[in-house]
Specification:
The chain has 334 residues and is α/β, with parallel strands linked by helices. The chain has 15 helices and eight strands. The mean pLDDT is 96. Bound molecules: nicotinamide-adenine-dinucleotide (NAD) and SN-glycerol-3-phosphate.
């Protein structure tokens, strides 16, 4: 049995905490508010983020960051735009310990354009980072439905430790030595899922969505390969696998955001009305800035960035995409 600190008690942190506690690990599920931690403990359930899932006895809700100090491992599940601050806090609370930290958040930091493992390297340099990513809705994992995801880190010994810690009967981990590639897939698929939601919200139908998935995957590969990710990672669970899941389901917050935008919702108002995070909204711009700096074209992601930031309307963006010069298929440069 290990002691695991789960930083972040949204739906994914809670589902992962429940999974580990069911496997016999002692879990501290950290959230910012002491009142909420108390209420969740009393209810025996995280009603706000994962309703209907009883918390196992081995899971203790906590608002005390110092609990990280005695832990064997940490799952980091705080939304990407708040990650740096809480990594710095965890570093202090853990006495700067070289704790194994699995990054489970999917996004790029807006101010620096960095993926989470680069943020971790700056904010908590002693931590030993890994990436846990792949097609996995929190509600599915909490219900014990069969799920497979990627666990990526450079050290083989660390990978093996993570595999034995987090794998469960219906939660299958595949190992990868490409943490960067695993992160890129999760960040880009969220932006593409918004595009697919927009197409459905506009009533364009399944053929349009399939075209967006295929051309979006070409963008994901172009960008990932230019950044040094491995092809096998991009076409694996954390890339193609997660794109297929997220781009096809209203269960996805990113797809649902797109759906609402396609139906005429105003982006800022819709985002303000949501308790849950749709990471693609904040990641779209840093992603496209990073791509442009690397000379990689990502027209679908550019369109999503313009729409969610209110710089362009849905109709204008679609017209721009459809009027691009005709070209050969393939991931290529553009
Ligand atoms: N939900 C899923 O199915 C799922 C699956 C895989 C990965 N993820 C990723 O996990 C990460 C967390 O998402 P989630 O779905 O668990 O969250 P959520 O949308 O269910 O809840 C949002 C969480 O963010 C917290 N939060 C808001 N502002 C904050 C701040 N300033 N500092 C710290 N925390 C703050 C809220 O308290 C809440 O716990 C995201 O990067 C998401 O992409 C989610
Ligand atoms: O609800 P979404 O769009 O954040 O997607 C959740 C997970 O990332 C799916 O793997």
């Amino acid at each position: 049995m290990s002691r695991v600190f789960v930083a972040g008690a949204g739906s994914w942190g809670t589902a992962l905490g429940v999974l580990l506690a069911r496997e016999g690990h002692e879990v501290r599920l950290w959230m910012r508010s002491p009142d909420k931690a108390e209420a969740v403990a009393e209810a025996g359930e995280n009603e706000a983020y994962l309703p209907g899932v009883p918390l196992p006895d081995l899971l203790t809700p906590s608002s005390d960051l110092v609990d990280v100090a005695g832990s064997d491992a940490c799952l980091f599940v705080v939304p990407a735009q708040h990650a740096r601050h809480w990594m710095e806090e965890l570093r202090q609370a853990s006495s700067e310990a070289a704790l194994p930290v699995a990054l489970c958040s999917k996004g790029l930091e807006r101010s620096t354009l960095m993926p989470m493992h680069e943020v971790l390297a700056e904010a908590w340099p002693e931590a030993r980072g890994a990436v846990l990513s792949g097609p996995s809705f929190a509600a599915d994992v909490a219900r014990g439905l069969p799920t497979a995801v990627t666990l990526a880190c450079e050290s083989q010994a660390e990978r093996e430790r993570w595999l034995s810690l987090v794998s469960a009967a219906n939660f299958r981990l595949y190992a990868s030595d490409d943490p960067f590639g695993a992160e890129i897939g999760g960040a880009v698929k969220n932006v593409l899922a918004i595009a697919c939601g927009i197409a459905i919200g506009k009533g364009f139908g399944e053929s349009a969505k399939a075209a967006l998935i295929a051309r979006g995957f070409a963008e994901l590969q172009r960008f990932g390969l230019a950044m040094g990710a491995k092809q096998e990672t991009l076409s694996g669970l954390s890339g193609l696998g997660d794109l297929v899941l997220t781009a096809n389901s209203p269960q996805s917050r990113n797809f649902s955001l797109g759906l609402a935008l396609g139906q005429g919702a105003e982006p800022a108002a819709y985002l303000r009305s949501q308790r849950s995070v749709a990471e693609g909204a904040a990641t779209a711009r840093p992603l496209t800035e990073k791509a442009r700096a690397a000379g990689v074209e990502m027209p679908i992601c550019e369109g999503v960035a313009a729409i969610v930031e209110g710089r362009d309307g849905v109709d204008e963006t679609i017209a721009k995409l459809m009027n691009r010069p005709l070209r050969a298929e393939g991931a290529g440069k553009s």
